[in-house]
């Protein structure tokens, strides 16, 4: 897949284990230019280090806190000024209080619920609203989700509810923006050990279950997920919108 001449915004690289970093590697290999957004100076430093390992020269890192509307507006204005426009966005951002990602969902606090839905689901809508001001023709937005949006998975709790809202948001954004030629999709990734997965109770149990029972009898990795993200961002997926593409060794098809 040749993505030379294309520019993509990647939101949500924390470190080399991030799924968003897998997408960065895939896009870089295809020759695309990447712009990173970062929550803070600390993450920017880490991204700078990682980006220097890539083939391309991806030197634009813009801070963006998706919990603040005016910050998302400022960030995409800045990205446009520095790039002259871009072809797509990977939204790889989510958060829930870790004490609510174990035990019973009925214990979820009102504030914890609001926070998880705000950062993990609402942020896709405001990111899409600001990005579309500057996105080139036939632009594409991709976000990351998990099977816990569709089925009750142990410990995933309020993040599962947030991801269900995220997947519905993908459909409503696709419905609205299709006539402008913009596509919106999600990759539903199998469990992968990352900074975030450590916040989910008994995470290791599901890794073992997949190795033993999933059709491919193995777990997936960041680059496999990244390849699917790059595909959905690219024109190879020009006829696909409002879709949730599972990259999970086939686990989600099983009873
Ligand atoms: C039975 C469920 C086990 C598989 C969970 C797979 C998974 C792993 C990581 C995921 O992304 C998260 C998870 C928690 C999360 O909230 C966090 C992350 C770090 C610290 C903290 O306090 N909360 C943010 C993103 C995610 O959405 C899904």
TrEMBL record:
- Give the E.C. number(s): 1.3.1.9
Which residues are substrate-binding? 96
Please tell me where NAD(+) binds in this chain. Answer: 12, 65-66, 93, 163, 192-196
The yes or no answer to whether the keyword Lipid metabolism is present is yes
Q: Which GO terms describe its biological process?
A: fatty acid biosynthetic process
Catalytic reaction annotation: a 2,3-saturated acyl-[ACP] + NAD(+) = a (2E)-enoyl-[ACP] + NADH + H(+)
Q: Does the keyword NAD apply?
A: yes
Which keywords describe this protein according to UniProt?
Fatty acid biosynthesis, Fatty acid metabolism, Lipid biosynthesis, Lipid metabolism, NAD, Oxidoreductase
Q: Where is the active site?
A: 146 (proton acceptor), 156 (proton acceptor)
The pathway noted for it is: Lipid metabolism; fatty acid biosynthesis
Give the top-level enzyme category.
oxidoreductase
Q: Which GO terms describe its molecular function?
A: enoyl-[acyl-carrier-protein] reductase (NADH) activity
User: Family assignment?
Assistant: Belongs to the short-chain dehydrogenases/reductases (SDR) family. FabI subfamily.
Spell out the NCBIfam families in the cross-references.
PRK08594.1
Q: What PANTHER family does the entry give?
A: ENOYL-[ACYL-CARRIER-PROTEIN] REDUCTASE, ENOYL-[ACYL-CARRIER-PROTEIN] REDUCTASE [NADH], CHLOROPLASTIC
According to UniProt, the name of this protein is Enoyl-[acyl-carrier-protein] reductase [NADH]
């Amino acid at each position: 897949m040749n993505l030379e001449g294309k520019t993509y915004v990647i939101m949500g690289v924390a470190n080399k284990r991030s799924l968003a970093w897998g997408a960065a590697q895939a896009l870089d290999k295809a020759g695309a230019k990447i712009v990173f957004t970062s929550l803070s100076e600390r993450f920017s430093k880490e991204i700078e280090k990682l980006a220097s390992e890539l083939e391309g020269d991806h030197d634009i890192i813009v801070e963006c806190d998706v919990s603040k509307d005016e910050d998302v507006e400022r960030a995409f204005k800045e990205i446009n000024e520095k790039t002259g426009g871009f072809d797509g966005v990977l939204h790889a951002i989510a958060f829930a209080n870790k004490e609510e990602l174990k035990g019973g969902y009925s214990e979820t606090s009102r504030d914890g619920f609001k926070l998880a839905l705000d950062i993990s689901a609402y942020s896709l809508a405001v990111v899409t609203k600001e990005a579309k001001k500057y996105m080139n023709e036939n632009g594409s937005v991709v976000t990351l989700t998990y099977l816990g949006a569709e089925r009750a998975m142990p410990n995933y709790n309020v993040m599962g509810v947030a991801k269900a809202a995220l997947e519905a948001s993908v459909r409503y954004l696709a419905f609205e923006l299709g006539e402008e030629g913009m596509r919106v999709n999600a990759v539903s990734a199998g469990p992968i050990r990352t900074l975030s997965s450590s916040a989910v109770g008994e995470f290791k149990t599901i890794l073992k279950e997949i190795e033993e029972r999933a059709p491919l009898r193995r777990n997936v990795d960041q680059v496999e997920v990244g390849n699917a993200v790059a595909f959905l961002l690219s024109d190879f997926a020009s006829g696909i919108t409002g879709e949730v593409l599972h990259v999970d060794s086939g686990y989600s098809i099983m009873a």
